[in-house]
Amino acid sequence: MAGRLFYLLPLVLITLYLPASSLAQSVTASFQTNPVDEDRTTILICNVNNLGTNNVVIDRTIYSRTEQLVSGTQILPSVDDNFFLSINDNADGSKTYFMTIRGVYHITDPGTYTCRIESTGGAVITSQSAILSINYNPISSDPRCSIADSNTDLTRLSGDEVVLACTSEIGYPPVDIKWSYSGCNKDRYLPGPTVTSFGFYNSELKIALSDQDNGGMFTCTLSRPDGSYSKSCSVGPFVVLGGEVCNMESTAMTAPSPTYHGKMTTDGMKSNAMTAPSLSPTDGIMATEGNDSWTHVANKLLCMLCILLCFVFYAV
Known about the structure:
single chain, mainly beta, 3 helices, 5-stranded antiparallel β-sheet
């Protein structure tokens, strides 16, 4: 047994006196707060063991673009001034790099942050990455509703197909998006909207209007399940020519009746049963003003003839 210990003793002594740079290097990476709310502060923490004469490099990759942030003990001059670096020498010989990011922004700051140890020649010895996520809501102007047709008029014919659009940032975590309808058409069916997303929602809703949609409103709502966020926009009220005007008790909103300008005509709109407004008594008077009828003129002449005959009779 003593003989075996004699042979192991040199290995133990070599290990004890081996330079730190010759031991295995390691690095860990994590964020103090992740995900972090937009405009708040978070810290990237890199723990480095057995650095020796090697170099520490920190970079980040956003949308396939990699940017170096730290080399050695300095933040590079090209980096934004909302980054700050401090280094702590630990009692066990390791080092901790604290890179503070203030006022995080969801477009420029989320991504993959990598801490790595490089040799003096630039070769990567070891590395570890951490992904930063940022909680944010869509911008204040979202959502934005519109009619995605060439005809953006709210006055339509029964049977017209209309494409409604709702555009917004998605946010993180992604907000929910849905369409709703308020109006007198109790049978109104809302087909599932088409949604495309690459950081943005572009939700399109294709509908066919009916007479009962006169005064109807279509609303696009963004929300979070926990109720912390909710915003909406609407398209309407639609005026469906020939449609009945109803009182929407559920929304306390009265649909406006169609407004006509210029000469009334039903050319090309027979299917809509559009009825011209009747003339009031005043309108009838205004329609004949300045045009005496022949009957009225004859009565005047007869009266004058009677007066003339009476004058001649008494004169004789």
